[in-house]
Amino acid sequence: MAGLLASSCRVVPDADDADVLVINTCAFITPAVEEAIDAILDGAAWRAARSGRRLVVAGCLPSRYGDDLVRELPEVDAFVPVADEERIAHVIAALVGQPPPAQTLLDAPRAAPGATAYLKISDGCDRRCSYCTIPAIRGPYRSRTADDIVAEATTLLEREVREIVLVGQDITRWGSDLPDSPRLAGLVRRLAALDGDYRIRMMYVQPDGIHDELLQTMVEHERVCRYLEVPVQHASRSVLRAMGRGGDGEALLSLVDRIRSALPDVVLRTTVMLGFPGETRADVAELAAFLEAARFDYVGVFAFSPEDGTRAASLPDQVPARTRRARAQRIRDLADRIGTAKAAEWVGRTVRVLVEGEEDGLVASRTCGQAPEIDGLTLFSGSSRPGTFVTVRIVDAHGYDLFAEAMT
User: What CATH class does 350-406 carry?
Assistant: First the structure.
């Protein structure tokens, strides 16, 4: 959205200098909704402080709550749900009395310069997991065409992006709604065939979508990071069925073994949820045993949040909030113990890292096994330009961060 506004507006760092304030919101869980409402109320105070100011609320909050927000927040001049985000420049032009811009999303400059860029290949979801608000917020599953994705990837590479991160709510379903039903593996092969020195990362790869063809594509193309984020949510069969998900701990361990057989050096991230309605102490113990056996490199641990409009919010046997938090912390401690031990296994390895900038006087970079923003960093002394690849030797590990020496 900021990129689309760049040709018709000037983005300023301080709201006091702005004529229009855009608040981009999340509404996935209740704490995010509360944070968004607090930000909107602050924005309303900003708007009232000077005549002529305009307040815009974008993203998931207006998508989830629609007309209710219009009634409850009359201070907001315009709401832009996720389906209309590409019209943000037109909305603001209308608010300030300017002609609408002709710029398209592909023409827009990158608003967040850097070596890494997220490339959305799909939006929405059809899975209907009982705890999830995404279908209500983002709608049914929709794949972008391969040509459109490849065109954007080419543009990103021309703008000196060196890591393209493929994202979507369920990227393994990509192509299932397109003519001839192309598959993710074919799209990845097309992206890996572009010119330039770069790498590709896949995020949010659902367990049932990891086919041998995709694993073989990762084996054959060095540009594709040996990294998969596979959200499992739980290991107990009864909890998974209540969640509206398939599989169980045994099937998930078999999947982990299959991935590691094809890619022995793969880095695996997952997410799990604790305190789902009906979850017992035995279920938590089963999840803990599963994580001990699977030994994921990274685990995001979340306590269940009962969300209005989801089936899970009205299920019987709700787990008390305090118990949910305690169980999540227990599993988080277990996951950190395993994850930091896995990080220490990198010591002594020589790897290629992508330089991102500086942190505490050291060069900050990432291996293929470190996704942006959520995993650790690889830090080393010296000076290297952001956006370059450097070969380093890992000499130490502190928590999830690695420390290295640059190879001459």
Answer: mainly beta
CATH assignment of 2-96, given 3.60.15.10, 3.30.1490.20, 3.30.360.10, 3.40.50.12160?
3.40.50.12160
What's the burial of 104, exposed, middle or buried (CB within 10 Å: 0-12/13-18/19+)? exposed
pTM: 0.86
Fold held by 116-344: pyruvate-formate lyase- activating enzyme (3.80.30)
- Long-range pairs of 67-76 with CB within 8 A, sequence gap ≥ 24: 73/40, 73/44, 75/40, 75/43, 75/44, 75/47, 75/48, 76/40, 76/43, 76/44
Contact 228, 201 (CB under 8 A): no
The rounded Cα 383 to chain-centroid distance in angstroms is 29
Per-residue pLDDT of the chain (408 residues; tens, 9 = 90+): 887 887 778 888 899 999 999 999 998 888 899 999 999 999 999 999 999 999 999 999 999 888 888 899 999 999 999 888 888 989 999 998 888 777 666 556 555 667 899 999 998 888 889 998 888 888 889 999 999 999 999 989 988 899 999 999 889 999 999 999 999 999 999 999 999 999 999 999 999 989 999 999 999 999 999 999 999 999 999 999 999 998 899 999 999 999 999 999 999 999 999 999 999 999 999 999 999 999 999 999 999 999 988 999 999 999 999 999 999 999 999 999 999 999 999 999 999 999 998 888 899 999 999 999 899 999 999 888 999 999 999 999 999 999 999 986
Asked whether 144 and 122 are in contact (CB, 8 A), the reply is yes
Decide: residue 198, CB within 10 A, 0-12 exposed, 13-18 middle, 19+ buried. Answer: buried
Orientation of helix 146-158 relative to helix 184-192, angle to 10°:
30
Listed by start position, the domains of the chain span: 2-96, 116-344, 350-406
- The count of other CB atoms within 10 Å of the CB of residue 72 is 12
